[in-house]
Amino acid sequence: MLVPSGQLSPLQHHLLQELDLCDLPAPERAPESYLARDLDTDEIRDALSTLLWTGLVERRDGELGGLALTPLGAAALRAAECDELTARLSAVASFADTVSRGAPPRSAGHALKRLAEGTWTLEQAESYVRTGETGADRS
Prior knowledge:
The protein has six helices and two strands. The chain is mainly alpha-helical. A two-stranded antiparallel ribbon has the order 1-2.
């Protein structure tokens, strides 16, 4: 079976990351497990139906059994992480062009670090180098 080509929502991505670490109980049985992971159980129930249907997650031991990441789910998670890192690397390469046009080294270094971490977008990093501010987000 191929990895689904659709994008994961941020909630789906977060849930798959948590399931990659360990199996979780059904949200109905142990909502505190989800709350401790900053996951809303009502939102999880909605997202879970899609994840179960696509085969990214499976229930173990019946309807109220634990949830586990399937091999397909692990592949989808890795593909999403790869896409995210590819986009971040592309932004870093684009930012290198901005730096090569004579940005001050200190501000460029700070902006590059934030961009590589994924904390800032390319637009925020470029704005910081040009104006000393990231636009709407101040940091």
